[in-house]
Amino acid sequence: MARRKKVYEGKAKILYEGPEPGTLVQYFKDDATAFNAEKRATIEGKGVLNNRLSEFFMTGLNAIGVPTHFIRRLNMREQLIRAVEIIPLEVVVRNVAAGSISKRLGIEEGTALPRPIVEFYFKNDELGDPLVSEEHIIAFGWASQQDMDDMVSLALRVNDFLSGLMLGVGIKLVDFKIEIGRVWDGDYMRLIVADEISPDSCRLWDIDTGKKLDKDVFRRDLGNLADAYTEVARRLGVMPQGPTGVTKPTLIN
Hints:
Elements lengths: L5 E4 L3 E5 L5 E6 L2 E4 L4 E4 L3 H18 L6 E4 L4 E5 L2 E12 L3 H6 L6 E11 L8 E2 L1 H6 L5 H23 L3 E15 L2 E7 L7 E5 L9 H4 L5 H11 L18
Antiparallel strand pairs: 1-2, 2-3, 3-7, 4-5, 6-7, 8-9, 8-11, 9-10, 11-12, 11-13
């Protein structure tokens, strides 16, 4: 088989040229990073879990009419996706105060917010992905006002979907981050959800105990990250029920 051409490599994923024009193959790595990659580790099985969980969430969004770049899963670590022009913004939706919003505004972590809050961050690792306003976004041409309206609408629909899904399995969706890309159908441009949706990009707390089931486990040295992600996958039915304490996750094919 011919060697595939790498298009891009990030902290958690690699993109390769896809088998057809307009497609890419997204490969999920086992690498874990935090604090703008200042903290690094390799977590065995993490890429497999995130591939399956992202497939699960993206498939669900597609089914309810929220467009995503996801086409199909290829194997345990790879999925076929649509090639998109990524808007250089991270779109964050917050339901509960945690992380940077608690530090910025002095709100106690765990405080329920009066309504979901949507924030934009400029995607730039060298600058630490700074928070930006709509005025910045328009002035620097990263997106139009219509784009931002559409991004907020998409983000809130994703929030509704994920919040209900998680609530049903005893998990509180504290916040999450998505990326959004542009695709063209002829002369018509539309926005779709891209990148991934996984415990890497969400804060997830057990409703009863407050136990963290997301990347904060790694950030704050709270235990085994693969175990936390495995718990999320098991509750959602992505993984079979099985004995506790397994070191290597086994996923449903």
